[in-house]
Amino acid sequence: MIILIGSEKGGVGKSTLATNLSAFFAIQGKDVILVDADRQSTSANWIQDRIETKKTKIDCVRQYDNIKSTLQSLDGRYDIVIVDCQGRDSKELRTGLLAADLVIAPFRPSQWDLDTLPTMVELISSAKDLNPKLKACAILTMSPTNHNINELELARSVFKFDNLVLLQSVTCDRKVYRDAASIGLSVLEMDNEKASFEISEIATEIITIINS
Can you give the CATH number for the domain in which 87 is found? Predict the structure, then answer.
């Protein structure tokens, strides 16, 4: 199963999702590889830090430009292939979509982020012509934890995109995500029930989508 995490905009938590979902599946006993297709190498650097922790092993490879054949090859050798793409329209994103089973488009609850989604929808639609099995969803990330701020509800109310399912689960703007990332861990391996619940809910929901 190939899960690609991509967005038209940077700073939306792609690497946070990629690393935490990789850890979730690895902890569940799946054979996981994390493909870092972003030249900033955030996910690959996280893997290097993780090696020092002696926690559940996650393989990693850096791959750039046309990544389709690499993903297809890895899909035959691993249970789960998770791809962290650049935060822009790139060759990595376009070719990765041609191999993926599921694309997840993260976006923050802001108008600027919502404005980038039509381009993602267009890219996904084009990819489906050549990759009919591709499923697509979007997820709200880095949402405010203050319940008096209604950005999350507003973003949900104006989200109206065909062929792009909005997940019910979200990630919130929690310091524990940054703390975990800095030492090669997932929030599942930190003492934070709320963040752990968020990642577990996301994983459960995307598995349901893939199997539907």
Answer: 3.40.50.300
Tell me, yes or no, if the pTM score tops 0.70: yes
Give the range of the structural domain holding residue 125, as residue numbers without chain letter. Answer: 2-211
Between 111 and 131, whose confidence is greater? Answer: 131
pLDDT tens track for 67-122 = 999 999 999 999 999 999 986 789 999 999 999 999 999 999 988 888 888 999 99
Q: Provide the domain count of the chain.
A: 1
3-state secondary structure the chain: CEEEECCCCCCCCHHHHHHHHHHHHHHCCCCEEEEEECCCCHHHHHHHHHHCCCCCCCEEEECCCCCHHHHHHHHCCCCEEEEEECCCCCHHHHHHHCCCCEEEEEECCCHHHHCCHHHHHHHHHHHHHHCCCCEEEEEECCECCCCCCCHHHHHHHHCCCCCCEECCCCCECCHHHHHHHHCCCCHHHCCCHHHHHHHHHHHHHHHHHHHC
